[in-house]
Design goal:
This protein has one domain (2-250): Alpha-Beta Barrel (TIM Barrel). The longest helix is centred in the middle third of the chain and has 18 residues, at 104-121. Helix 1 links the parallel strand 1 (2-7) and strand 2 (30-36). The chain is built from nine helices and eight strands. 42% of the residues lie in helices and 17% in strands. By secondary structure, it is of the alpha/beta class. Helix 2 packs parallel to helix 3 (72-81). The protein starts with a strand and ends in a 7-residue tail after the last helix. It has an eight-stranded parallel beta sheet. The structure holds nickel (II) ion.
């Protein structure tokens, strides 16, 4: 069994066939998915998905891209959403200095607010960090963050080492399969297996061979195969360990033993 720990099935790309996509994922062994809210409306829709589908869990928060328009009132709305039992973390939150779609000051302000909310609610955090390693690590240290997962990990070895030292989990997407992703495969090699989770970030980042098409949670299987090749372990072992990691980190209540 596999878990897709980060996808966006609330996006309009899935409006026509959401139920089918989840069924196909389950048939491929991806029995559970964690849907990530990336905006206020996305968080509301994530919780709705978790209510509608037994095998979906929700994460609520605000992507750094959307920080500009996020108010204190919106944070209160997220706080009330987080009270639903299938909400398993706050995210995705963080900093994105690659695209800078919101001013960096807004990104930092909202990031800190959400880290404090997560601590207050005793929930882990799902972190998005792009071209912003130093500020991400500094703010997380200042806010004394203990339980975090770094989503869509790139190939930054300095970032990797610091995250591992702090006990943050590392989450890899299907971009591990890309021809030019040698640095990300090196990160897979270096990361201890008990700290790795698997995700698609669907609809984005389809694996090699499917690029340009919509990604979906069933492709976690392709990612697991690639991780199994890199680590030199069976896919069963990779599935077992990464599922266990996700289950413990998010405190998932699953039907399986
Ligand atoms: Ni995402």
């Amino acid at each position: 069994m596999l878990i897709d720990t980060h996808c966006h099935l609330d996006f309009p790309e899935f409006d026509a066939d959401r139920g089918e996509v989840l069924k196909r994922a389950a048939d491929a062994g991806v029995k559970y998915v964690i849907n990530i809210g990336s905006s206020l409306q996305g968080s509301i829709n994530s919780v709705k998905l978790a209510k509608d589908y037994p095998n979906v869990f929700a994460v609520v928060g605000c992507h750094p891209h959307d920080s500009r328009d996020f108010s204190e009132q919106d944070i209160e709305t997220v706080r009330s959403l987080a009270g639903f039992e299938k909400v398993v973390a706050i995210g995705e939150i963080g900093l994105d200095y690659y695209r800078n779609l919101s001013p960096q000051e807004d990104q930092k302000r909202i990031f800190v607010s959400f880290l404090r909310l997560a601590r207050e609610l005793n929930l882990p955090v799902v972190i998005h960090s792009r071209e912003a390693r130093d500020d991400t690590l500094r703010i997380m240290r200042e806010e004394n963050v203990k339980k975090a997962i770094i989503h869509c990990f790139g190939g930054d070895q300095i970032f990797l080492k610091e995250c591992i030292d702090r006990g943050y989990l590392i989450s890899f997407t299907c971009n591990v399969t890309y021809k030019k992703a040698g640095n990300i495969r090196d990160a897979v090699k270096a990361a201890p297996l008990e700290m790795i989770c698997l995700e698609t970030d669907a609809p984005y980042l389809s694996p090699e061979g499917y690029r340009g098409k919509r990604n979906d949670p069933s492709f976690v299987r392709i990612l697991a195969q690639e991780i199994s090749r890199i680590k030199g372990l069976s896919i069963e072992e990779i599935s077992r360990l990464t599922t266990q990691n996700a289950r413990e980190f998010f405190g998932l209540k699953l039907d399986e033993p």
